[in-house]
Amino acid sequence: MTSFEDAGRLDAADPLAPKRQAFHLPDGVIYLDGNSLGAMPKRAPARLRTVLETEWAERLIRSWTESDWINLPLRVGDRVAPLIGAGPGEVVVGDSTSVNLYKCLGAARALRPDRRVILTEQDNFPTDNYIIEGIARSERMEIRYVPAGTDPREALDERVAVVLLTQVNYRTAAMHDLAAVTAAAHRAGAVMIWDLSHSVGVVPLDVRGAAVDFAVGCTYKYLNGGPGAPAFTYVAPAHAASVAQPLSGWMGHKTPFAFAQHYEPAAEIRRYLCGTPQILSLAALDESLAVWDGVDMSAVREKSLRMTQLFMDLVERHCAGHGLEIVTPRNAQRGSHVSIACAHGYPVIRAMVEGGVIGDFRAPDLMRFGFAPLYGSYAEVAEAVRIMQEILVTGAWRDPKYATVLAVT
Ligand SMILES: *Cc1c(COP(=O)(O)O)cnc(C)c1O
Question: Is it true that the peptide bond before 364 is cis, omega within 30 degrees of 0?
């Protein structure tokens, strides 16, 4: 399937098309960066107004109980749970993915005190590996990096304490077989931590079924929680009850308002809280998760694969001969974005943004386009390729104004 005309037919038959109504999408923009910051749900502003004008302004501190702010991290966690295959009371939302990685690594490390190696990938998202470096320094552990494109299972042995991987690679969108890698880690006696930042909201997940030990992930990407929305943490119930996490803040205490002298962890997942919850961000995220109620994840996955397939087919057909190389797998072992290596990728992306197509750029040479099945259309996929083709054919990207590098790409 490679024609621009196919897009209209696919949109007409798309069971998820009505979901687009739930989002504010600016006129004149084709948004292909929902893998970095999801679109705003239309109901978010009203919810935030209520939190500001009623809960904060009028009820003031009473809202911790009257508006149940105190339990918001768990209530929102219960809304994330079905999207990752977890049960109620198994997910908490708070802090950032980076901070939650630290908590999980610390807890996982404590589960395997006799082992010294943390296994990760060389091309993991940088913050994941930076956090691993920090833990390795303080815990005197060793880091074993699996080279890009290598099966991490081959690097497992009896010295590995913890395996930390990101299921969908942020550059290439290549996807690990979560269940198979988790099973192999367990056979080797290691604890498995998954970063689901680029999976949640596009890939059906079953952390319980796969017996995952720990999982974390962003909520501001495909879940559309808003800039800086807090991240989720899943911990297998047996671990949550048996081991403490290292950021032993008061909100994870058994009885925070007893103001006891010493830390005692709360029962189960609440102990993964640290400080005071981010109520405004949690409220916006709560609204965005309401959009997911009743959404069939297999339909989401099917649309995601079709959108990325259509994009790759059209790019190959219409943008050949301009030095582009698609680095995203053509088989189904991929997430919901497509990356294209190109020596002049940065100015091409800048020209596309000016032409109304928002993608992003990842150093050194990747143009990245994310496809959000809840609000993206196939017609937009086709139009984005048409605009890219025009920019390549006319050489519009050569304008020197596109060469200056912006602070956030
Ligand atoms: C986006 C992303 C992060 C971001 O972490 P923050 O702490 O929220 O900034 C971490 N890991 C992966 C794999 C990501 O894709």
Answer: yes
369 flagged as catalytic:
no
50-107 pLDDT, tens digit per residue, is: 999 999 999 999 999 999 999 999 999 999 999 999 999 999 999 999 999 999 999 9
Using CA atoms, how far apart are residues 129 and 101, in angstroms rounded to an integer? 10
Say if ligand 1 is within 6 A of residue 96 CB: yes
Pocket test for ligand 1, best of 97, 132, 166 (most atoms within 8 A of CB): 97
Which of 199, 409, 202, 188 minimizes the C-alpha distance to 306? 202
Distance 157 CA to ligand 1 centre (A): 28
* Edge-to-edge strands, sheet with 214-217: 91-93, 232-235, 214-217, 191-195, 160-166, 117-121, 142-146
Q: 297-318 and 378-394 helices cross at what angle (nearest 10)?
A: 20
The structure's pTM equals 0.97
Does residue 369 contact residue 359 with C-beta atoms inside 8 Å? Answer: yes
If we measure between CA atoms, which residue out of 281, 259, 257, 409 comes closest to residue 345? 409
Answer yes or no: 125 catalytic: yes
pLDDT tens by residue, 216-242: 999 999 999 999 999 999 999 999 999
CA of residue 232 to ligand 1 center, whole Å = 11
